[in-house]
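FIELD: query
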Amino acid sequence: MSHLGFINSALAALLLSTNLLAADEPRTTIVHAGTLLAVPGQDAKPEQSLIIVDDKILEVRDGYVAASDFEGSVDIVDLKDKFVLPGLMDMHVHFTLAPKRPDFLKTSDSDYALMAAGNAQTTLLAGVTTVRDIGATSAEAIIAVRDAVNDGTIPGPRIIAAGESISATAGHGERRGQRDDIADLVQSKAMCDGADDCRRAVRSQYKLGADMIKVHATGGGADPNGKRYSAPEMFDDELEAVVETAHRLGLKVTAHAHGTAGIKAAIRAGVDSVEHSSWFDDDAIEMYLDTGTYVVKTAYLQDYFLSRPQIPKRIQDMRRANIAIAEPMVREAIKRGVKFAMGTDSGVMPHGQNAKEIWKYVELGMSPMEAIETATVNAADLMGKSDQLGTLEAGKFADVIAVDVSPLEDITSLESVSFVMRSGVVYKSSETM
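FIELD: result
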């Protein structure tokens, strides 16, 4: 090697080592918040500073802290004219679905993954920094997208993935109406019959990398067995087997349930939350209160369906009649203190409109603060991640959003988020809009 070649190689090595050392140096960011709701449920405070090191909050201080108070390079984020709060969390999304793209148009796991990546970005930019994806069309696709978000390869919210839903044969999670030889090619490993087979189904999703489990206790709202008085889709021993197996693996369980009997069966089986819970009754409310089971209501979904002009009038009239019966029981559940965590069913409704669910909770009787809690502290508690998420406190992930108007005064301001940070990285600001 020539002397010049040796020098060039040495310089390259020096530059590489310098870059590696720089990458290892802590990255400090200070967020100046005009008003900060650090802990939903407590009072918001004026003129606060969030000190963030890498992806975590180091501390919260009164006043606007100067960069000169810290050594090294410090980034200042000026949100002095904003209302700042923790990133929202949606406990019920489907990133491998979208209302404008029927399922038959997607033919591969790659297609599902690309769709999920786009939906993830849309959701993050709406101010949602953590989601539970519960019931993917392709477990492989959603887990790949989850991992890519975690690696920083693509933008998106933190994803808690359930993989594919556990469902009985011919149940809500299976593609019905197909010839057996065709169905066998696309059949999910999450289909099961009998307690032993349902244990296998849970393990199949755990093996793929699922973070949690979703089970269908009833049919869907459009299914014959998804009505108010329908029997549960699974037998008690099957539901109990799903919950026991998942809990032994350290996974939480949520149950899709519309009918009253299915809701009660899921709670008796020990699920951690129930999705939709369309038809409460007094006994179900008491069971929620006794067990502490969460409701993930997806309450705005009915408003979305009513807004679609292509739905026939007779169906719209039927929905309005059902709402008139069901919503008073939701209001009663809220009044009596049933625990709610925010979830939208995005994928069935458009992605990026997540905050409409929070508005709906206010319409149903929650205070604005209580509604915000469903998407922050309550959601973190449901996931068992209160030590990491849900508030802006020391040691927690720096998931920060900002709006121009206080949501405590106008809850709809959460539908127009102007700043998004997840794990200390800014994805949306006035400079990027």
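FIELD: remark
The chain has two domains: 24-86+395-428, 88-383.
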